[in-house]
Amino acid sequence: MSNLQLRVVSAVVLAVVTLGLTWLGGLPFRLLCAAMTILIFYEWTRMCRPVAATGFG
User: H or E element: which one contains 56?
Assistant: First the structure.
């Protein structure tokens, strides 16, 4: 499976799950929001963490 096919399949699966949990509402939707918040925070902290400077030589 090519990289593009894998991305499309995962996007479709995530879209179905997201729309389903949004339609259900209530606790499932709140858990989805909490999980998304945690993942966004994790990604943000990984992008913004300080990286040790490396010199030449």
Answer: none
Task: Work out the burial of residue 32: count CB atoms within 10 Å of its CB; fewer than 13 is exposed, 13-18 middle, 19 or more buried.
Answer: middle
Cα–Cα distances in Å, from 52 out to 41, 44, 49, 55? 21, 18, 10, 10
Task: Judge whether 35 and 27 are in contact, CB under 8 Å.
Answer: no
pLDDT along the chain (57 residues), means of 10: 92 96 95 96 90 68
Please, what is the Cα angle at 55 between 49 and 57, to 5 degrees? 145
Q: Yes or no: say if 22 and 29 are a contact pair by the CB < 8 Å rule.
A: yes
List the beta strands (DSSP E) in 1-57.
Answer: none
Q: Global pTM?
A: 0.67
Q: Do 24 and 17 touch, CB atoms closer than 8 A?
A: no
